[in-house]
Amino acid sequence: MRKFRKGDQVVVLSGRDKGRQGAVLQVPDDEHVVVEGINMVKRHTRPNPQANKPGGIQSKEMPLHVAKVAIWNPATKKADRVGFKLLADGKKVRRFSSNGEMLDA
């Protein structure tokens, strides 16, 4: 089970986007996340008339390492770590480390 999932609200801990928040758009592998509006880069693309794609300079999000982001805890209004808890029925759920509140209901 991964600590970050698509749709989670996260805050950036280090780098040029430090302190900014966004939603996780995708989790390409175990160690990276793509966050909405964070780590933007300019991509120079050639036009492709067969695929009906225009050329030019386009902005896109690049992956961030999971060590650079933390999940946003709306109860405490701070960044928080994620832990795991095994329920009585054998289900594994994510929880906030600070207050023990569950992320997955």
Describe what is shown at a glance.
The protein has 105 residues and is mostly beta strands. Helices cover 0% and strands 47% of the residues.
List keywords for this structure.
SH3 type barrels, 6-stranded antiparallel sheet, two-stranded antiparallel sheet, 0% helix, single chain, elongated, 105 residues, mainly beta
| Extended strand count | 10
Beta percentage is over 45%
Assembly state (oligomeric): single chain
What characteristic shape results from the CA principal axes?
Answer: elongated
Strand order of the largest sheet: 6-3-2-1-7-8
H/E element string?
Answer: EEEEEEEEEE
Spatial gap, N to C terminus:
15 Å
* Structural class by sheet pairing and helices: mainly beta
Name of the top-level CATH class of the domain at 9-46 and 56-79? Mainly Beta
Q: Largest sheet, if any?
A: 6 strands, antiparallel
Percent range of helical residues: under 10%
Explain this structure to me?
The chain is mainly beta and 105 residues long. It has a domain at 9-46 and 56-79: Roll (SH3 type barrels), CATH 2.30.30. It contains no helices and ten strands. A six-stranded antiparallel beta sheet has the order 6-3-2-1-7-8, with no helix packed on it. The protein has a two-stranded antiparallel ribbon with strand order 4-5. Strands 9-10 form a two-stranded antiparallel sheet. A hairpin with a 2-residue loop joins strand 2 (21-29) and strand 3 (32-35). The radius of gyration is 17 Å and the shape is elongated. The two termini are 15 Å apart.
